[in-house]
Design goal:
By secondary structure, the chain is of the alpha/beta class. Among the domains are: 89 residues, Nucleic acid-binding proteins (OB fold (Dihydrolipoamide Acetyltransferase, E2P), Beta Barrel); 155 residues, P-loop containing nucleotide triphosphate hydrolases (Rossmann fold), CATH 3.40.50; 157 residues, P-loop containing nucleotide triphosphate hydrolases (Rossmann fold). The chain contains 22 helices and 21 strands. The strands form four sheets. It has a seven-stranded parallel sheet with strand order 11-12-10-13-14-9-15, with helices on both faces. β4 and β5 form a beta hairpin. Bound molecules: adenosine-5'-diphosphate and magnesium ion (MG). The site of adenosine-5'-diphosphate has 14 residues, from α9.
C-alpha cells in the first residue's frame, strides 16, 4: 500500500511528510514517538516534595499575574482538593488567566518544591480536556500529534511488513519478539511494561549496529602504520626534572603511554582526557619535545584564538630556553609574517606550529610533520582532522578533551582510539560553591557579587543570547548588561560575545585581565582558555539551556586560585530540569558530570554534531544500558563472522557507511 492511500494523508500532509524524508508506510512506522505523556492522576494524600506529580483540583481564587522580567510572567492562584488548599504558580501562561475562573476544575502537573503550600506547575489543562492514559508524543514539526496518531493507527489496521534486522540466532537467544509486534507496542502501548519490553529490543539493535561499525573500523585501522619515533629519553628526563613542579602520577602515566605509542610502528591515536586545569597541556609539551628530539615537527590545533594564544604562551614559556622554535599562526597576522611562517614551516626551521583552523589551509606545507595535537577535539569535525593528518605521513595523533568520560566507555565510543585519563588535580583547587536559583531569587546572587566586588574580586555573567529577541525568552547579553549596570553602579562592566572581531575581543579580555573592568557580561565565548584568577563569581542565566559539561567548563573560569569561588545557575522556572543542574551543586568532578550528561542527553548533544562517528541513539543510553551495550558489542563480532542473510546484510550496510566516512 502507498502512503497516499492511507486515510488521513491528504496532499498537504503527504508533502509535509515527504519533506521530512517520510515517503512510505514503513517510514511512518519507523518514526517512533520521541516520548510518552503519561497522564495518570496522583492522589493528594501521596504528595511528596520535589517529585513530579499530577493532580485534579478546583480553582478557588482569581489568578494574579506577576511580571518578573521581560517575557517572564507568573500566574498564581489558590486551589483545593477535598479540603486541602494550596497555591499554584505557573510561568508564562498569562493567556490562561481568562479561563481560570473560580470554581473551574483543572489538572496540574508539576512539583511541590519546598513545602506543600506552593505547587509549581509546568503544565495545566482543564479537567474536561484531560484524558487518562499513555499518549505517544511524536514531536514532528508541522504535523499535529493528533494527525500523526491517526495516520499511524490507520496504517496499523492494515497489513504491513517491516524488515527484521536482527539475525535469527540472536533473536532466539535473547527471546526478542518479531519487529512487527514491537512496532505496535511502541506506537500503541497499553502499559509501561509493554513500552519497556519493546524498547529493550530497539536498544539492543542500536547497540548491535554501532558495535559492528566499531569492530569494522578497528579492523581497517589496525592496518595503518606510522614511522617509529626515536626520541632522546635523556633530554626529556632532564627537561621534566627542570619543570617548576613535580608531575602528578596521572600525568606521568599519560606521558608513558604516549611514549610507548611513539615507539610503535602503528599510528598513535590517543585521547588525553581530564578536567579543565588537570594539567593536560604540560603533557602535550613533553610529548612535543620528545618528537622534536626525534627530528620531526609538531602541529597544535586549537579551536579558538584565545586557546591558541594561551598554548603559544605556555609552549614558549617551557621550550624557549630549550632552543625550540615555536610559531603561532592565526588569521589576523599580516600577509608578510604569514609568508615568513609558512617558509619556516616548510624548511623545517619551525619545530612547533600552533594555530586555529588557519592551520588547515592548503598552502601550509610541512617539512616533516610527525605529531599532531588536537585540543578540544570534539570541536573539530572528522574532515578537519583528516586534513591536518594528511599534512604529514601518518603522523601520531594526540587529542585532548576537557569533557572526560569513563575509560571503558571512551574506548568503545571513540572507536579505535586509546585513552589516557588525568584524574587528580595538580594544585589543591577550590571547589566552586554552586547553587541553582530561580530568577526571582536573583538578589541572592547579586548579594554575593556585591561582597566579592567589595573584596576587589571580579565577576562573570553568562547569557545564552547576544541580542534581545522577539521569539526567544532567554536573557541576552544586552539585557543582562542593562540590569548589571543599573544594580552595580560603581563597578565597571563590559560586554563580550562572538560577533565582535578578534582585536575587539582581545582588548575587552585584556581590560578584564588587568582589572580595568570588574564585571564581564558574556556569551559562552569565555568557555575555554580564558584565565583571570581574580574572578571569583559567575552567574549563568538560563542555565538550563546549556549542557552540564559546558556549564562545568564555564564555571572552571572561577576558582583558579585559592580564593573561594561561587557559581549561580539561574533558571526561569525552578521546577523544570532542576535534577539535571543539581548534580553541579553536588560535585566538581568532570568525569562524574559528563557521565551524567551522557546519560541524560546522549552523545550527539554532549560531544557536538561534528563528532560524526558517534550516533545519536533514539532509544539506547550509553550509560544506563550498560549490560545491553556490552552484550550487543560482543554479539557484533559474531554477526560479522556469521553467514546468514541478515548478518551479511547488516555487516555490509555498516561497511558502506564507513567507506563514506574518513577513517580516523
Ligand atoms: P589543562 O590543559 O588540563 O586545562 P593546564 O595544563 O593548563 O591544564 O594546567 C593548569 C595549570 O596547572 C597550569 O598553570 C600548569 O602550569 C599547572 N600545572 C600542571 N601540572 C602541574 C603539576 N603537576 N603541579 C602543579 N601545577 C601544575
Ligand atoms: Mg587546556
Amino acid at each position: 500500500m502507498l502512503l497516499k492511500e492511507i486515510s488521513g494523508v491528504g496532499k498537504t500532509t503527504l508533502s509535509k511528510l515527504n519533506a521530512l524524508n517520510i515517503t512510505s508506510i514503513e517510514d511512518v512506522l519507523l518514526c517512533f514517538p520521541k516520548k510518552y505523556e503519561i497522564n495518570k492522576l496522583d492522589d493528594i494524600s501521596s504528595r511528596k516534595i520535589n517529585t513530579q506529580m499530577m493532580f485534579s483540583c478546583q480553582v478557588i481564587s482569581k489568578p494574579k499575574l506577576f511580571y518578573i522580567r521581560k517575557r517572564l510572567t507568573k500566574l498564581s492562584f489558590q486551589c483545593e482538593i477535598n479540603t486541602f488548599k494550596f497555591q499554584v504558580s505557573i510561568f508564562n501562561r498569562e493567556f490562561l488567566s481568562h479561563s481560570l475562573n473560580v470554581g473551574v476544575f483543572i489538572v496540574v502537573s508539576g512539583k511541590f518544591l519546598k513545602n506543600f503550600n506552593n505547587f509549581t506547575a509546568s503544565n495545566l489543562v482543564l479537567l474536561e480536556n484531560f484524558k487518562e492514559g499513555i499518549k505517544p508524543i511524536y514531536g514532528i514539526n508541522d504535523i499535529t500529534e493528533h494527525r500523526m496518531t491517526t495516520i499511524v493507527s490507520n496504517i496499523l489496521q492494515n497489513d504491513y511488513n517491516i524488515d527484521d534486522n536482527i539475525p535469527e540466532f540472536i533473536k532466539n537467544e535473547q527471546q526478542f519478539s518479531n519487529i512487527n509486534k514491537i512496532i505496535t507496542s511502541i506506537h500503541q502501548p497499553k502499559s509501561l511494561d509493554e513500552i519497556q519490553n519493546a524498547k529493550k529490543r530497539l536498544i539492543y539493535e542500536e547497540f548491535l549496529r554501532f558495535g559492528i561499525r566499531i569492530e569494522l573500523i578497528k579492523k581497517l585501522n589496525s592496518r595503518i602504520t606510522s614511522p617509529k619515533k626515536n626520541y632522546d629519553i635523556n633530554i626529556i628526563r632532564n627537561f621534566i626534572k627542570k619543570l617548576p613542579f613535580e608531575l602528578t602520577n596521572d600525568q606521568k602515566q599519560a606521558t608513558n603511554e604516549i611514549f610507548l605509542d611513539f615507539k610503535k610502528s602503528t599510528r598513535m591515536n590517543r585521547l588525553l582526557q581530564g578536567d579543565v586545569g588537570s594539567g593536560k597541556t604540560i603533557v602535550s609539551v613533553i610529548a612535543a619535545y620528545a618528537i622534536i628530539t626525534a627530528k620531526y615537527q609538531v602541529a597544535i590545533l586549537a579551536p579558538t584564538l584565545v586557546l591558541a594564544n594561551q598554548h603559544y604562551a605556555t609552549f614558549k614559556k617551557f621550550l624557549d630556553s630549550e632552543n625550540i622554535q615555536v610559531e603561532l599562526l592565526t588569521s589576523d597576522i599580516t600577509a608578510h609574517s604569514r609568508r615568513n611562517i609558512l617558509n619556516n614551516v616548510k624548511s623545517g626551521k619551525t619545530n612547533i606550529i600552533i594555530g586555529t583552523h588557519s592551520l588547515l589551509q592548503g598552502d601550509i606545507v610541512f617539512n616533516n610533520l610527525g605529531f599532531v595535537v588536537i585540543d578540544e577535539q570534539q570541536r573539530f569535525g572528522v574532515e578537519q582532522r583528516r586534513i591536518i593528518r594528511e599534512k604529514g605521513i601518518n603522523p601520531d595523533i594526540l587529542m585532548m578533551t576537557a569533557t572526560p568520560i569513563p575509560r571503558t566507555l571512551a574506548i568503545s565510543l571513540f572507536e579505535n582510539t586509546d585513552v589516557s585519563s588525568i584524574k587528580e588535580k595538580p594544585s589543591n583547587r577550590q571547589n566552586i560553591r554552586t547553587e541553582v536559583i530561580g530568577f526571582e531569587d536573583l538578589e541572592k546572587a547579586y548579594k554575593t557579587i556585591e561582597d566579592e566586588l567589595n573584596k576587589s574580586h571580579q565577576v562573570y555573567v553568562i547569557c545564552p543570547l547576544i541580542e534581545e529577541s522577539e521569539t526567544k525568552t532567554a536573557v541576552s547579553v544586552e539585557e543582562a548588561y542593562k540590569m548589571i549596570v543599573k544594580r552595580f553602579i560603581t563597578a565597571k562592566s563590559d560586554i563580550l560575545h562572538g560577533k565582535l572581531n578578534d582585536s575587539e575581543k582581545t582588548l575587552i579580555l585584556n581590560q578584564f585581565l588587568s582589572n580595568k573592568t570588574q564585571i564581564l557580561v558574556s556569551t559562552t565565548v569565555v568557555e575555554v582558555g580564558v584565565n583571570v584568577p581574580n574572578a571569583t563569581t559567575m552567574v549563568i542565566f538560563n542555565a538550563n539551556s546549556f549542557g552540564l559539561a559546558q556549564i562545568h567548563q564555564l564555571r572552571g573560569r572561577v576558582g583558579r586560585n585559592d580564593l573561594a569561588a561561587y557559581c549561580y545557575l539561574v533558571v526561569d522556572n525552578i521546577s523544570d530540569e532542576n535534577d539535571r543542574l543539581n548534580i553541579l551543586e553536588k560535585t566538581n568532578d568532570g568525569f562524574e558530570i559528563s557521565e551524567y550528561d551522557l546519560a541524560t542527553r546522549g552523545p550527539g548533544e554532549v560531544f557536538g554534531k561534528t563528532q560524526s562517528g558517534i550516533p545519536n541513539f533514539k532509544f539506547a543510553n550509553l550509560i544506563n544500558d550498560v549490560e545491553v551495550r556490552e552484550k550487543a558489542f560482543l554479539d557484533a563480532k559474531r554477526v560479522i563472522d556469521s553467514n546468514d542473510f541478515i548478518s551479511r546484510k547488516l555487516t555490509n550496510a555498516c561497511l558502506k557507511s564507513i567507506e563514506s566516512y574518513n577513517l580516523d
